[in-house]
Amino acid sequence: MASVLHGWRAARVTPLGELHTPPRMTAVLLRLTVQVVLVASLWRGLYAHTGTTAGLTREQAVTYAVLAVLASRLRELDQYAGRDTVIQHMHFGTIVYWYLRPLPPQRYYALRALGEQLYGLAWALFGYAICLAAGVVEPPRSAAVAGVFALSMLLGQWVLYYVMLLLDQLCFFTIRNNSAMLILIFAQNLMSGVYAPLWFFPDWFITLSGFLPFQATLSVPLSIYVGRIELSDAVAQLAVQAAWVLVLALVTRRVWRRAARRVISQGG
């Protein structure tokens, strides 16, 4: 019972910071609305004089882009304002408290991330329902597509969790890594298809991204949703996503052990 209570408290750390700060929630709503409107307008404008580009129709492109914006809310909470990022804990020396709590740091990090994703999921579903009702995005072609998309999205968020965990674990081994973190986050967003579908990039870029886990986080599930990846090919993509989950889980588990050796009682 005590472990469940500790887990619940850890999971609600960052969401509570948002819920107790109404101006930040208003800012999120405003930013999300502006992003959706601008992205939909941009892609409709790009398709104003063409029917199909890179194998995508205008409706598919708009749907992909808007869903990418909504999916970005799953892990986009403002941890920095609450001094709850790993890089801040390392800077101020408070990371040591992660190793003094009843919960192991690995479990605390995982539960906190779970709470963030559930909170972000509520925002994403809210935005999706409005966009679907307004005709901004197309519905899935069938119940089977919706089910496979949901499974792929779950695996993709699992992969994203481990990717972000690796970025945070980097803080244990570097002294000043703000710039490195920004570069890596930009690379993750670029290669995962957040800024634009990967099919618009050169062949060498697509080939390179195929050897990295980034496209498994977002590009694959959204490609299934819009029909770029057919259901007959989805099984192979799901297998690749599951393989990345397994590989990254093993890697991050090993890094956690090495990171613990670098923590001292005086701080970071």
TrEMBL record:
Keywords: Membrane, Transmembrane, Transmembrane helix
Pfam family, one: ABC2_membrane_6
Tree of life domain: Bacteria
Ranges annotated as spanning the membrane: 118-137, 143-167, 179-201, 234-252
Protein name: ABC-2 family transporter protein
Lineage of source species: Bacteria, Bacillati, Actinomycetota, Actinomycetes, Kitasatosporales
